[in-house]
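It is worth pausing here to work through a concrete case rather than discussing structure prediction in the abstract. The textbook approach is simple: state the sequence, then state the predicted structure, then interpret. We follow exactly that order.
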Amino acid sequence: MSETTINYKNIYYPPGGILIWIIIFLELFTFGAALIAMVFYGKQEAEIFHSSRLQLNATFGMINTLFLLTSGYFMAISVAELKRKNVSTFKKLLLLTMLFGLFFLALKSFEYYQKLDEGLDVGYNTFFTFYWMLTLFHVIHVLVGLVILTSVYFGIKKENTTTMEDVEASAAFWHMCDLIWLLLFPIIYLLF
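Step two, the predicted structure:
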């Protein structure tokens, strides 16, 4: 891993660099606006949203929440281990991070399969339009996050190709995926 001197007390240089934080704020704004729109339409079509929400499996949503929180935990302690120069432990923890991300995707895929099998696709009603758009957009973020983490893993393995800034930026992106799911889960699976 190549050395980079980072002034962590400089507010203009957050962990991972300012660019990743601009991206994170834009993504959170996008998801936030979509969730506000969903709540607005949910009030307009309260009965449809309520009956549709009851067709979701809240247990799957909770298990996926636990998968992502566990993954985020491993990501956080992996970064701490790398800062201690414990590269071997970092790599093991990063693999666990990715494994729990894959668990999330597997369960989400199973849930999608069930919904499609029941005919609850994107055009079924307004609730399921929001459900598919928001959760698929989140799944795309998780997939991108896994690609980034895989790149970091192999960059660390090769040595001198991945910086601490790269690792922190990937961790910030991964935690953004966690945060977005923590916003999506209660609104989609529990609110209506």
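Step three, interpretation. The radius of gyration is 19 Å. The longest helix spans residues 126-158.
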